[in-house]
TrEMBL record:
Residues 5-159 form the MAM domain. GO terms for cellular component: membrane. This is MALR1 protein. PROSITE patterns: MAM_2 (PS50060). Pfam families: MAM. Transmembrane segments: none annotated. SUPFAM superfamilies: Concanavalin A-like lectins/glucanases. The lineage of its organism: Eukaryota, Metazoa, Chordata, Craniata, Vertebrata. It comes from Aegithalos caudatus.
Amino acid sequence: GTSWNNCDFETNLCEVLPKLNLQPGWIRRNGQSGMGPPYSDHNGNESAYFLSLSSEMQSSSAALRTNVFLPTDEHLCQIRFHYWVSQMSGTFMVGLQKHSEDTVTNIWQVSGELRNQWNVNTITINSTEKYEVVFLGMVETKRQGESVAIDDITFSEGC
């Protein structure tokens, strides 16, 4: 709906992701960048932007962290996102870091997708304290075409 805060990466302005310009492992690019798959965003648009892991590193993981969200009282926080995980060594995780905890709790993970294609997922978060959400991409090897990408993250008003 209209109340969902959307990050489609067409610009660098993503209010929910304050450190978008500072994350060394993620790069904002499109399918025409010459960096391997994916060759389009989740809508099949070759010139539309998304985030993918930088292919410069031999093996890498990179985190994308949201703003601090307030506790979810009457509205649960729903986050919908499109993701691409290459079949050999890609892993994509979503984690929850509560204010009182030092560690990130893994709430969703996918790895080694059999088909190189965009998929979509929605996660629901219920927290009694302030929290941040962490999107973590990992690739173990940098073989040709190994990649992890994310596009169109939308946050419900409960976030």
